[in-house]
Inverse folding.
């Protein structure tokens, strides 16, 4: 997947990989403080303890906590996709009557792309319950966290959608309309399919970032993986729990990253197939 | 001793930012007010440092125990001693024996109903890195998983927004929150001592710890620590003790 150029290329890439890995390992092993740092970050027993957790000793399982991150990520993603598309379509609309909504959508995107996500999480998680409204002021913290992720990420993702919509040549709309398709059917059957294919890689890129940003919800006191790791670290004064959290996040994000690569490759091959 | 110092001729003392009353006053460690500021200056005087030879630096709690050389001689920030923590850093002897307390909103259920069985039914909040969480889980053993906040301020906001029933923190901090910081809060009760104490934190294997211990012993023997506690924490310590 990463190498090109037959047997010789494979040998060269293997050798250079081995050298790079050896150099990195050497820094870890030979540095004067290597033992202390290794103990602080890669203490085997500490990693296991933080993975399984022990509430009686004042810390929780990082392994169990990552389940909350996964659920928050899935819920957020399912909401972001349609919401962001709606924002993008509003911003792309041309009807004069829709002007005020277009302005609101533009302000929305500018605002939430500019405001730090942490602030949105805090504002919703501490502000909304303080309003004492029926139902919406009485949700679990994770719900406010997901709401904040949806609000913030939809602003980013709507711009990705918009870039995708703009990437479809205007002649495609003209062609569809001249075939007798209405504006709506042209959008549904001609523009969106092409636009979405173009934006799958950047879209998945944003979702990889979203998976990690679920850890920001920890500021509300929710015990997600990063917060569980932080609790362990500050209770026993050892950072190995963060290594455990990092490994768990990698296990979540690497498959998605590889999947994105494959989609890009496949798409490129398809498009080039007709060009030769 | 001079060779053991981070900077020769200066005693470099670290604490977090912000810091709270009654441990410090007005978030200003240099003013000598508040119990921990006063203790730091008293220790410095015992070691022969004048007030101007004490330099304060900010050190976030999480980096106090980072591996490698530290940019301070000792840290004073309500850090509880525990044997497992002492594997990563060096602790001085105790400068304060601490108990945990419940802070809740006035008129809330927990303010009046806190028998051992009732205590299990509430949702608790705690600040990260404090021993309150260990206390909640091992002694109260609540039905619901407590919430853990990165700062005391966040825990307090959560209490005011009715997101938690009560927060657990050390008694002096609890009393300050209930009497001054939060408008509608009350210190419900204090839990019995479990032998927890605060120590000054140094880099692991720093031999300066023997000098600090000598100074703390002297301050304890001549009654200076007790009178500083009376002066800065005195009004904060008269509370009924309840059993979890």
């Amino acid at each position: 997947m990463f190498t090109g150029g037959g047997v010789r290329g494979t040998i060269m890439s293997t050798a250079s990989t081995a050298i790079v890995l050896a150099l990195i390992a050497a820094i870890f092993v030979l540095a004067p403080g290597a033992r202390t740092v290794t103990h602080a970050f890669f203490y085997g027993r500490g990693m296991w303890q933080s993975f399984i957790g022990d509430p009686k000793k004042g810390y929780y399982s990082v392994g169990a906590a990552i389940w909350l991150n996964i659920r928050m990520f899935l819920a957020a993603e399912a909401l972001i996709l349609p919401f962001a598309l709606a924002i993008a379509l509003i911003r792309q609309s041309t009807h004069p009557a829709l002007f005020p909504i277009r302005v609101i959508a533009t302000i929305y995107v500018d605002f939430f792309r500019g405001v730090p996500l942490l602030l949105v999480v805090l504002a919703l998680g501490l502000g909304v319950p303080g309003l004492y409204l029926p139902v919406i002021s009485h949700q679990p913290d994770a719900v406010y966290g997901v709401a904040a992720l949806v609000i913030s990420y939809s602003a980013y993702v709507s711009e990705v959608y918009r870039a995708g919509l703009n990437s479809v040549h205007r002649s495609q709309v003209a062609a569809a309309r001249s075939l007798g398709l209405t504006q709506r059917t042209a959008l549904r059957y001609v523009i969106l399919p092409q636009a979405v294919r173009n934006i799958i890689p950047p879209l998945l890129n944003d979702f990889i970032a979203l998976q990690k940003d679920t850890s920001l919800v920890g500021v509300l006191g929710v015990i997600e993986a990063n917060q569980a790791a932080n609790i362990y670290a500050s209770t026993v004064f050892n950072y190995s729990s963060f290594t455990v959290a990092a490994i768990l996040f990698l296990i979540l994000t690497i498959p998605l990253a590889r999947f994105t690569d494959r989609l890009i490759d496949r798409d490129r091959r398809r498009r080039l197939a007709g060009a030769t | 001793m001079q060779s053991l110092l981070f900077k020769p001729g200066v005693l470099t003392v670290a604490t977090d930012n912000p810091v709270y009353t009654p441990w410090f006053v007005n978030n200003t460690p240099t003013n000598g007010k508040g119990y921990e500021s006063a203790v730091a200056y008293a220790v410095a005087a015992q070691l022969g440092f004048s007030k101007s030879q004490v330099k304060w630096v900010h050190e976030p709690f999480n980096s106090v125990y980072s591996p490698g050389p530290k940019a301070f001689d000792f840290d004073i920030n309500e850090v509880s001693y525990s044997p497992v923590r002492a594997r990563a850093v060096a602790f001085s002897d105790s400068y304060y024996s601490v108990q945990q307390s419940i802070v809740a909103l006035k008129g809330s259920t927990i303010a009046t109903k806190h028998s051992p069985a009732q205590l299990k039914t509430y949702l608790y909040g705690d600040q990260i890195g404090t021993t309150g969480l260990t206390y909640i889980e091992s002694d109260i053993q609540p039905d619901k998983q407590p919430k853990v906040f990165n700062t005391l301020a966040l825990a307090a906001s959560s209490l005011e927004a009715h997101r938690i029933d009560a927060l657990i923190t050390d008694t002096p901090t609890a009393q300050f929150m209930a009497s001054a910081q939060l408008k509608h809060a009350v210190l419900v009760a204090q839990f019995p001592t479990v032998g927890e104490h605060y120590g000054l934190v140094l880099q692991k294997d720093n031999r300066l710890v023997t000098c600090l211990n000598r100074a703390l012993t002297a301050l304890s023997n001549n009654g200076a620590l007790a009178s500083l506690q009376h002066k800065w924490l005195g009004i904060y310590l008269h509370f009924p003790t309840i059993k979890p």
Remarks:
- Chain B has a mean pLDDT of 91.
- The first strand of chain B starts at residue 11 and ends at 15.
- Chain B has nine helices and ten strands.
